[in-house]
Amino acid sequence: MVSMIHMDISMALMILSAVALYLVWFRFITRSLGGPRVWPLLGSLPELIKNSSRMHDWIADNLNSRGGTYQTCICAVPFLARKQGLVTVTCDPRNLEHILKVRFDNYPKGPNWQAVFHDLLGDGIFNSDGDTWLFQRKTAALEFTTRTLRQAMARWVSRAIKYRFCPILDAAQREAKPVDLQDLLLRITFDNICGLAFGKDPQTLSPGLPENGFATAFDRATEASLHRMILPEVIWKVKKWFRLGMEDSLSRSLGHIDKYLSKIIDERKLELASRKQDGTPHDDLMSRFMKKKESYSDEFLKHVALNFILAGRDTSSVALSWFFWLVSQNPSVEEKIVSEICTVLMETRGSDVSKWVEEPLVFEEVDRLIYLRAALSETLRLYPSVPEDSKYVVYDDVLPSGTVVPAGSNVTYSIYSVGRMKFIWGDDCLEFKPERWVSEDGKRFEVKDSYRFVAFNAGPRICLGKDLAYLQMKSIAAAVLLRHRLMVVAGHRVEQKMSLTLFMKYGLLVNVQPRDLKPVLMKIRNDGVEDGMMDREVREQSLE
């Protein structure tokens, strides 16, 4: 009996000692973090869950109160906390330049990210590092610098605007029925990026808004891949092995995607062989890769297409959704955009307003819309399509802010927060102010430091499709605002959805109303009279 009591006392002392040692270690490890509250064992997980509905604003609040950089511990367990459990969060432009450019090789996407997206994206350009990434980057960069690709994008965009997007909005206006603009924008950008990526329009944006098997499979595969991000690797791998839950959905969706793209590749090979005789070009990305002297596998070509669809679809549509919402809240900005569009069209198409809406703007006209680009850039500053991104730390390093980042840990850079810091953008950083992007004379777009404006990433991984994205967004925005006024449906809640892309949680329900151009033309006429820029005949015809 005595020995049993001694054993119990010894066990109790051991447990108390272990707890005491853990608490001493916990106090030591968390003392230097300076981020949100860290709990024993659970780390910052309770705080993350508590603020999950406003994650990006919560991160911005933490960064704002800590000078732009802080560290937190996801897992407060010895031997893990200083490596896998430690996350450095920053929005300091000095740190961003260090991570994305100066020490680029030390901050890859990392093994966890690659494992999560490998089934969908393989070793494609957006899911690879090192030599694999570099080879694809150089190959793709050659294609994105060609005028042919830009002309192809303009053609796909114009076609979708003229024959499907505008008619659907016109019908909604006639019938006085609200539409979910975010859904329409997702469809048109998906159709456009598929056309650019592999030369086939899935026509998800059509009357009746039909379902498309490839689009549905792609959405489900993306959702299932993102679901892996919130699970420990061992858990989702077990679910994958037994095809449970989302992993079963992912497997079936990938099979559908593979079958769809295999058919396109086989057809394209036959088309390219036959077109050698008549010289008719195929200018989509997949065809351009297939026509190179290097021999690429079908698997590589599929991943080329999927990687660019993932990058080009959600980002532009989400940006446009926030743009139209912000414009609807800021009538003075809307008036300036419409005035700029009318001024350009008056110079390129004459004073007959009826001719302005016959065809979407060509890209020479789109290029002249400086204030519209400023408004889109201001939207992306406040509501970047990808609000947060992360990197893996290969070797111990010290950031310019003085923060020590150990090998094996992760760094998150908050793109959302960069645009909301007073020390970066000034006291008016939360205002929607396109003028900050325009020169004083209003004739030039002011390019900002890419480490203060990270919506298109920065450094060696800066977005190759940046110019194409602006082309698409400006074309769609100009077509809509020239024809319609969009009013958010009364009572509709506009909230952020917590995902890798900054979707609106409940979509964007809007009423579509006709655009009255007479007040805008009157103002242009009056300004023209004052500036001596318009002759009498043009002034009079513009008001007819």
TrEMBL record:
Cofactor: heme
GO CC entries: membrane
Record's bilayer topology term: Single-pass membrane protein
One of the Pfam families matching this protein, by short name: p450
Keywords: Heme, Iron, Membrane, Metal-binding, Monooxygenase, Oxidoreductase, Transmembrane, Transmembrane helix
Residue positions binding heme: C463
The keyword Heme appears for this protein: yes
GO terms under biological process: lipid metabolic process
The family this protein is said to belong to: Belongs to the cytochrome P450 family.
Name of this chain's protein: Cytochrome P450
Biological classification of the source: Eukaryota, Viridiplantae, Streptophyta, Embryophyta, Tracheophyta
